[in-house]
């Protein structure tokens, strides 16, 4: 259906693929230079292919005002983050791009540059996709493929009562960044504003830690924080049939988020439930805490214990309580962003 796909970008679909996407397929013979009908992948002996797909739609999953580079980072980041949560090492991505016909080739070129820089740290290669034109909104779907040793992955169902709940990095920057870009948070220093904007637009998927956790052989349940800290921990609780208690004061926040919370303490709710952080939240047995902390140090990655897993039924239907320093549960409203 190439003629229907072409759209009005100068040069059309095939020139766009050749000019902007083919360079990103270098490094993978199986991509066949994006010149064939499909790509060829071999999986090394003893490894499983771990596969995920995620779409981002302008106005739903990202602000249309983001730069093309940022949009590319977002769609790559959300997908590699899902691989991270399984403990997989990213190898390849496939991109279905729906460009609106008003986008210039400069925009597409900048988008491709963003893809390249987002893929670079992991070494994952663009191995194929589809390019279509749409009246709107623009949307991008990536399918990401990674490897993990056969029979081993960080399943959500792995949490057990007595386990400790950890998070990487800081929580809340993504949602506060979005609130700031929407004009709901003002008067931040330029440094703090830049930090939040970057954290919203450019997720840093924690696949190096995911792969490292898998190597330990510990029974780890992991999830990446996309819907919100509380909602995502609830995903682990439901899959594992356990409850969780999270200590509000232990939840790590950035200096920029702290500056927001000094002005608007009520936004702590947004920190806990807002989403878009793409940090890794995981559970591990109590006696592995020291090993996990040193793993974080070795990777230069902040890892913080924020709570514990309890027997099911301890906390009623909600399965999860966020408690203050006195152990009193906080009221949290809906408990996480639900995508449309
Ligand atoms: P067909 O019309 O047979 O579906 P396409 O013209 O869509 O084929 O694609 C031709 C080649 O270009 C394929 O190898 C496909 O994987 C690749 N390709 C198309 N769009 C993209 C894209 N956005 N990113 C990467 N590869 C792409
Ligand atoms: Mg096609």
On the 0 to 100 scale, the average pLDDT is: 94
Q: Classify the secondary structure makeup into a structural class.
A: alpha+beta
Rg of Cα set: 21 Å
Helix content: 25-40%
Secondary structure layout plus pairing:
Elements: H1 2-5, H2 12-21, E1 47-57, H3 68-86, E2 89-100, H4 105-119, E3 125-134, E4 139-149, E5 164-168, H5 173-181, H6 190-201, H7 207-216, E6 221-224, H8 229-240, E7 243-247, H9 255-263, H10 268-273, E8 280-284, H11 289-299, E9 303-310, E10 320-323
Helix pairs in contact: 2-4, 3-4, 3-7, 5-6, 6-9, 7-11
This protein binds adenosine-5'-diphosphate (ADP) and magnesium ion.
Describe the structure.
This protein is of the alpha+beta class and about 350 residues long. The protein is about 35% helix and about 20% strand. Strands 6-8-5-9-7-10 form a 6-stranded mixed beta sheet, with helices on both faces. It has a 4-stranded mixed beta sheet with strand order 1-4-2-3. Helix 4 (about 105-120) links the parallel strand 2 (about 90-100) and strand 3 (about 125-135). Helix 3 (about 70-85) packs parallel to helix 7. The longest helix has 19 residues, at about 70-85. It is globular. The two termini are about 30 Å apart. Residues about 1-10 and about 335-340 have low confidence and may be disordered. Adenosine-5'-diphosphate binds near residues 21, 95, 128 and 131. The site of adenosine-5'-diphosphate has 13 residues, from helix 2, strand 2 and strand 3.
């Amino acid at each position: 259906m190439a003629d229907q796909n072409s759209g009005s970008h100068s040069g059309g679909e095939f020139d766009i693929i050749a000019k902007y996407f083919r360079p990103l397929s270098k490094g993978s013979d199986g991509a066949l230079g994006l010149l064939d009908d499909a790509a060829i992948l071999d999986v090394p002996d003893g490894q499983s292919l771990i596969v995920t797909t995620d779409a981002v739609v302008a106005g739903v999953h990202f602000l249309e005002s983001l730069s093309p580079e940022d949009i590319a980072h977002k769609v790559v980041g959300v997908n590699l983050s899902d691989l991270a949560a399984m403990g997989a090492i990213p190898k390849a991505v496939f991109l279905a791009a729906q460009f609106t016909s008003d986008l210039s080739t400069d925009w597409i070129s900048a988008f491709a540059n963003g893809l390249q820089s987002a893929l670079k740290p992991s070494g994952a290669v663009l191995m194929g996709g589809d390019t279509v034109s749409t009246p709107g909104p623009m949307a991008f779907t990536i399918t990401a493929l990674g490897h993990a040793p056969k029979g081993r992955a960080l399943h959500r169902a792995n949490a057990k009562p007595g386990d400790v709940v950890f998070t990487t990095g800081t929580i809340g920057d993504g949602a506060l960044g979005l609130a700031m870009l929407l004009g709901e948070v003002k008067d931040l220093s330029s440094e703090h504003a830049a930090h939040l904007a970057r954290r919203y637009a450019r997720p840093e998927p924690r696949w190096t830690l995911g792969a490292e956790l898998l190597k330990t052989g510990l029974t780890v349940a992991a999830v990446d924080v996309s819907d919100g800290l509380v909602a995502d921990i609830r995903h682990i609780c439901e899959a594992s049939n356990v409850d969780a208690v999270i200590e509000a004061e232990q939840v790590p926040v950035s200096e920029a988020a702290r500056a927001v919370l000094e002005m608007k303490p009520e936004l702590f709710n947004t920190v806990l439930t807002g989403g878009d952080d793409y940090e890794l939240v995981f559970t591990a047995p109590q006696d592995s805490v020291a090993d996990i902390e040193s793993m974080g140090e070795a990777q230069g990655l902040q890892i913080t214990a924020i709570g514990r897993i309890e027997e099911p039924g301890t906390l009623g239907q909600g399965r999860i309580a966020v408690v203050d320093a006195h152990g009193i549960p906080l009221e949290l409203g809906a408990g996480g962003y639900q995508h449309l």
